[in-house]
Amino acid sequence: MARHRWNGTNQGNGLMAAAAALSAAMAQGKTAEQLGLLAALFNVVGDNLALLALSAPSGDNLSTPDCCPAQQPETQNGRCP
After folding, report:
1. Contact at 8 Å (CB) between 38 and 26?
2. Distance between CA 70 and CA 62 in Å, rounded?
3. Share of the chain above pLDDT 90, in %
4. Does residue 62 contact residue 68 with C-beta atoms inside 8 Å?
5. Exposed, middle or buried, 38 (CB in 10 Å: 0-12/13-18/19+)?
6. Would you state the pLDDT for residue 41?
7. What is the pLDDT of residue 53?
8. Using an 8 Å Cβ cutoff, are 62 and 3 in contact?
9. pLDDT tens, residue by residue, 23-37
10. Do 78 and 72 form a contact (C-beta atoms < 8 A)?
11. Residue 64's closest CA among 74, 51, 54?
C-alpha cells in the first residue's frame, strides 16, 4: 500500500474535500439515527487511530511493525532474531 504524506496545504485541502464527498455519499438515504451511529463509529475509529499513532514507528521504515533494522538479518520466519 502506498504511503501518503499530508504535509502540504493543497494535499490537506484535497483530503478534506474527499472526506466531505464521502460523508455526503454515505449520508444518502440514511435516517438521523443511522447517521448518528455512523458518526459515533468514525469518532471511535479516529480516536483509536490517534492512540495508535502515539506508538507508531516514525521515519521511512514503515513497511511492517516487525521489520528488522538494517544491521540485523531476518530469520526464516521473517522476524528479527
Report:
1. yes
2. 13
3. 51
4. no
5. middle
6. 97
7. 93
8. yes
9. 999 999 999 999 999
10. no
11. 74
